[in-house]
Amino acid sequence: MRNRYIKTSLTNNYFSMCCFLLCAVIGVSLQASDVPITIAQVHYSGGGDWYGDPTTIKNWLQLLRNRTNIETAKDRVIIKLTDHTLYQYPMLYLVGHGNIRLTESEVEALRAYLKNGGFLFANDDYGLDKSFRREMRRVFPEQELQPIPNTHLMYRCFYELKGLPKIHEHDAEPAQGFGLFHDGRMVVYYVYSADIGDGLEDADVHPDDTPQVRELAAKMAVNIAIYALTH
Asked: Residue 212 CB: number of other CB atoms within 10 A?
């Protein structure tokens, strides 16, 4: 029993040290460029409410500043996929409820961005699933969104989580994470029936969310950002 405790303690300490060193390396790298990192919210053309979760990214960036060694901007940037500044942002956030549709130019721009090192986090705010899957098949026709197992590095690259937290009820389905890959790298991470974005909003936006639920959303958001910045 004692040997098992020692082994577990060493493993946890090693994991914590690796997380600390990882954030230190990221922080030094980003500080060297003298450009605070931000997360760009996608203003897509058709359908849906691309503008949703207006306080999510602001709070997400603050979490990264407070909990890691990463220097961040103060708030989100709104960007269209066809903007010439797209490649300034290592990570995009896409959210919505409805029937979103990308133009052909947006599809091509997103495909190129993802293949050249970009990362997209998509949050189903409820009702996004069918149209998002359809649009991702246009971006990567050769593959389908793949379930991401609870053992994936996404859930333990900074905080050790049991899997994707479920923040809002939606249709009472379990929280599910899906990914798209290019050359072995996850380039799209999509969460369904979880709503991490809502869990990051200002507390008065969803007053029924408990501090415990909001903390789970916060930890997941930090993990997503750390994963995106290191892969």
From this structure: 8
Compute the Cα dihedral for 148, 178, 180, 223 and give only its sign.
negative
Residues 128/48, Cβ–Cβ less than 8 Å: yes
CA–CA distance, 220 with 161 (Å, rounded to integer): 8
E-strand spans in the chain?
40-42, 77-79, 91-96, 119-124, 146-147, 176-182, 185-192
Q: Where are the domains of the chain?
A: 2-230
Confidence class of residue 217 from pLDDT cuts 50, 70 and 90? very high
Which listed CATH number (3.10.50.40, 1.10.8.60, 3.40.50.300, 3.40.50.12140) goes with 2-230?
A: 3.40.50.12140
E-strand spans in 165-226? 176-182, 185-192
Query: Is the per-residue pLDDT at 153 higher than 60?
Result: yes
Rg of the chain's alpha carbons, rounded to an integer? 18
Question: How far is the C-alpha of 216 from the C-alpha of 70, rounded, in Å?
Answer: 20
On the CB side of 66, how many CA atoms lie within 13 Å of its CA?
Answer: 10
